[in-house]
Design goal:
With 306 residues, the chain is mainly alpha-helical. It has helices at 5-8, 22-42, 48-69, 79-100, 106-113, 116-128, 135-152, 160-186, 194-213, 225-253, 255-259, 261-275, 283-299, 302-305.
């Protein structure tokens, strides 16, 4: 769920007057929104570490094939930089989201994930100090924090299991937040193809998680055709093709439009959770999600006035 960070880094901001990017945008929103549903299904068969390994391995294979078809070379010269990026953006979040959904619903995971831009902003302000604090950022952060509390229904009490799941998702968003300034400073200036970067990065992430997966090979249930299909969808599309499509949206529509996919994915996650998994969407989760997205929108207003 690290998709929007590459675009806020400012690598590509080409404007367009047409809507040729819209189909790719919608496909990406659906794929990443459904990823929470896919994870929930795969958890019936796989341990979280094995799930992450399967997902990343399939994604790496898809990206390597695409990279080969485009006749691009893999950037092996910067493998050390991509090793660090792979931890923050792929292997660690890949495990943490699966681990979290052992404790919380796919809906809640999708909603909390929507707060990622706010966590990134907080880290940029407090740790990296890359930008001057504005009143919009402060208001946005406070609004988003209130939204997260509303999502959790904090007044009803939070079960220990649910708290573990929420903390795991937030830990994943912190990883995303640290990866943004690192990517912007150390990788964007090198001008490598985004496709070749992701192909090598996802491959490295699969190798990172492999040793941990080997200790959790015992299946929770038999491998069914559904598990195989969902694995291919989550890995091939969620950790593979969707990255290529998102880069296309950024190139054709600009970074601002591409980053708004963040607002759509929790809606898709909620619809899938209710209709496909029969999860319950509480009124406060819906209200909290709205407040979180509002906080993200407010925090980004500073770009227009800075």
């Amino acid at each position: 769920m690290a998709k929007y960070f590459y675009f806020t880094a400012g690598a590509m901001t080409l404007p367009t007057s047409s809507k040729v990017w819209l189909p790719s945008y919608l496909i990406v929103a659906v794929i990443w929104g459904l990823s929470f549903y896919f994870v929930e299904v795969l958890l019936t068969a796989f341990h979280p570490t094995l799930l992450a390994f399967v997902r990343l391995t399939i994604g790496a294979l898809v990206l390597l094939v695409i990279n080969r078809a485009m006749k691009l070379k893999l950037p092996f010269k910067i493998w050390k930089k991509l090793f660090f990026m792979a931890i923050l953006m792929n292997s660690m979040p890949g495990f943490l989201f699966a681990f979290a959904q052992d404790y919380i619903s796919s809906i809640l995971a999708g909603i909390i994930n929507a707060s990622t831009p706010l966590v990134t902003l907080l880290l940029l302000m407090l740790v990296f100090r890359d930008q001057k604090v504005t009143r919009f950022q402060i208001i946005g952060l406070i609004t988003g924090f209130i939204g997260v509390l509303v999502v959790l229904g904090i007044w009803t009490g939070v079960a220990s299991g649910q708290l573990i799941g929420v903390l795991a998702v937030l830990a994943a968003t912190v990883g995303y937040g640290f990866s943004l300034p690192y990517y912007k400073r150390n990788i964007v200036p090198l001008n490598y193809s985004p496709t070749s970067l992701m192909a090598l990065q996802i491959t490295i992430s699969a190798l990172q998680i492999a040793p941990f997966a080997m200790f959790n090979l015992e299946l929770r249930s038999a491998i069914s055709p559904q598990i195989i299909f969902v694995s291919l969808m989550l890995g091939g599309f969620g950790s593979g093709l969707a990255y290529v499509l998102h880069y296309r949206v950024t190139a054709k529509a600009g970074a601002a439009i591409a980053s708004t996919v963040t607002y759509v994915t929790p809606i898709v996650a909620a619809v899938a959770g209710v209709t496909l998994l029969k999860e319950v969407l509480h009124w406060y989760e819906f209200a909290g999600a709205t407040i979180v997205v509002l906080g993200v929108v407010i925090s980004q207003r500073q770009k227009a006035v800075s």
